[in-house]
Amino acid sequence: MNLFLHVCCAPCSVMCIETLKGEGIEPELYWYNPNIHPFTEYKSRRDCLAGYAKNLGLALVMEDEYGLRDFIARVQCRNTGPHPDSFAFPGRCAFCYRLRLEKAARAAKERGFEAFSTSLLISPYQDHELVKKTAQAAAEHYDVEFLYRDFRPFFREGQAKARAAGCYMQKYCGCVFSEEERYRGAASADYRDRAATAAPKSEACSTGIMV
Ligand code: SF4
Q1: Looking at ligand 1, which residue's alpha carbon is closest to its atom 6?
Q2: Domain regions of the chain by residue span
């Protein structure tokens, strides 16, 4: 199978790639993450993946789009109704998944891949079911297969390997809102629930949030 693998960051990709290779699948990697801010953070994660892909000898398609303004404007448009925390922007992660996965599905189809998948499936901190559902809908819309795997059992191993490989290990999920939550300790209840079951205190998650 020729597979287009959307990669949110190099650390998350480590065990996705290794697992897929174990199945005889050599993925082509795809970077499209306009949800990562500010620019220095975006650049660190982007450049880390470029170096990592080069070391592995894997092809990487770079959709180099730093999307701060557009991302915030579109999240703001979807922020309906009053909310006790005006910075919470409920629904932003659903939009963020859709933004990236629809683009990945479309790019996979246009480039003639049989299927696409995403490294978001390795993070126990992401809303796994929503990632899966969003990718399935995008696959249907663009008429390309979505290869679903639950990579979460390999999460810690991947983090350790990424650290050992000298990867840039981020400290928060990606958007400016998640950066504030990380440093002000104001994560949503949903996120805190996932974090509590995913990792002991002070351990970095696959998207880099320290809990
Ligand atoms: S917290 Fe992460 S998944 Fe949610 S909107 Fe921000 S970058 Fe996207």
Answers
A1: 175
A2: 3-169
